[in-house]
Design brief:
This protein is mainly alpha-helical. It is built from six helices and three strands, in the order αββααααβα. A hairpin with a 3-residue loop joins β1 and β2.
Length: 147
């Protein structure tokens, strides 16, 4: 079991990085215009279009908190024996929401497909982002088990 945790943590960290920079969805409008935004591009695009509150909320829940959680999992896994006690309870509670971002993107894809104005397809970034959420939850369970 001790060998499985480093592999899961590495895979989760790599998946999160790829999920942030690779395209999440491909949107085709009117057969002429195509967009393939990544999560980072969506957040920065919202910010520059004046949607600062929405951009901040998405950045917090989709980028900052997953990175923070992974960082704390690395500390808990490789730190001193009692390092897992340093993980705040509110961060453990937020792990229940880790798949919310993936569900929201899936709803956007569904809405675009049913509107008839555009077609949307999931891209590799969405799958890496979902894999990161699942692998992070697995790593969290492994850290709890070892503690």
């Amino acid at each position: 079991m001790r060998l499985f945790l480093p592999i899961v943590l590495f895979a989760s960290t790599l998946s999160l990085g790829l999920g942030l920079v690779l395209p999440l969805i491909r949107i085709d409008r009117l057969l002429l215009f195509t967009d393939e935004p990544s999560l980072l591009a969506i957040v920065s695009g919202l910010w520059w279009e004046g949607e600062m509150l929405l951009s901040t909320v998405i950045a917090l829940f989709s980028i900052v908190l997953p990175c923070l959680k992974l960082g704390l999992l690395h500390v808990a896994a490789y730190g001193e024996r009692d390092a897992h006690h340093g993980v705040p309870a509110w961060l453990r509670a937020l792990s229940n929401w880790s798949m919310l971002d993936v569900v929201l993107v899936a709803l956007v894809i569904f809405a675009a497909k049913t509107s008839g104005l555009a077609t949307a397809l999931s891209q590799s970034g969405l799958w890496f982002f979902a894999a990161s959420a699942l692998l992070t939850a697995t790593a969290s369970a492994l850290v709890k088990r070892e503690a």
